[in-house]
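Exercise 7.
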Amino acid sequence: LIFRLNDGPGPELLRHVFLERGWQEFDEDEHDEQDWNLWWRSSRFRNSDYEQLQGWQRLNHHPKCTAITKKDALARNMKRMKAVHGAGIYNFSPMAFNLPNDYTKFVGHCSKLKEKDPYRQFTWICKPADLSRGRGIFLFKDLSELQYDCNAVVQQYISNPLLISGYKFDLRIYVLVPSFHPLVVYIYDEGLARFGTEKFDLGDIGNMFAHLTNTSINKHSPNYIVDKERVGPGCKWTLAQLRSYLRQINVDDRLIFSRIVNVVLLTLFTQVDLAPKSYNCFELYGFDIMVDENFKPWLLEVNFSPSLTSDCQVDLIVKKPMLHDLIDILQFTEQDKQLSDNQPAHLTRSTGRTIPPRYNIFDKNVPPRKKLYAGYPLKVASAPDRLKKDHYGSKSSSIRSESPADSTPGLTRRKLPSESNIHDVEKRRRKKKKPPHWSANPLNKRSSLNQISPNPQSYTKPWERPRPRVRHSGHPRAPPVYSSRVGDFFLAFPFNDVTKKYSEGKLDVKVVIQECQKL
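Solution. The predicted structure, written as tokens, is:
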């Protein structure tokens, strides 16, 4: 199996995990353009990357899924969900205004608050809409202090956070969405608690080391290496450490985390209707949650491509097993490697594009992928070998010894037809008006042209004008089956018969929200 990272160097921890599992890294000097099984990028993919996606390949981003990962889009969609389903349900997101569009509304809201309680001062936090890692964030109490030169989001600041020995913290929750249609959500049991490195003080709102918990900021604090009271050196705990602490002070950690699961699901419901159907894609989100002194969780933001760097030992403890479990959920098989190995890649001299062989992965003669979805109730799958302690390296290596071109030396192509012939072929194709995936129909007399030949050297591939492959044609018809738990990832949705039933077609958000309220 072959992995591909970004368009250059990717996260070192991710690379290490793949190599530890016996994968081979994509090398543009050794491999053809489509010769990979998983492509992981920190940035978004182009439309053409989705169009050319093959049945054995995966991308780590769903297309057009920014409704919750952009700060301004999240604020907009939270308002929409509050209006449709009630502010009592979507009450976990602080009041927010998108600037400059909502500036007048924000000023009016501040005026009403002042009229209601002239002696109370509210604190607000301003975040640039398109920046991350705490860049450009500042706090203010008076409108005269609000200055911005780009699109920004102003949120009501949570002024009563739960503190540990005076230090503010938030939670990084890892959420995996292997499918939006139907919606399937995994949440990682482990995660990070990220601390400010100076004690919380509302009287000093300019001290970012006290009010922001981003590691990218706090690692530059002079107190970062100091052994702080109860928190210790650095600025991170694992969620297991935090839950242990909560139990020590007689707080029901299970109730808090069941509320956090509810926040995650209600947030994802805002994205489902806006997400196109996409196969062979998955998304890893980083949810930032803050718990206040009343043990209520608040959604701060949702991170696209959460950081996979390892700044400290806590990062390694959490992120490395999480990546192993994520790859297990994707359930790559030896068949994925065989499908990619069996593709004879021929480059046209004019364009340099790879022309894949003409067969349809839906064909009945193509061995079906391992079935992944058997319907509810979901059975716990037996743990794979890699979950056994110290067995990461026990799997046989899948490094390829020869290129696809070397494996099919007898494959030839006919001489390219003239432009006039090409035009005639295109006209005949348009006249036939075949329905989608017509070649997969066993009743079609020409469907045999699309079958895999047991001997690739025995046929000559007819030439046709290269065109983008529609990725849906590479998706197995049988929907996948997901286990209720894989490593430390647990299946958060669907969680019962009702949520499974009402998510199989178009998600009935009203019904599934009602089910979530019962938890």
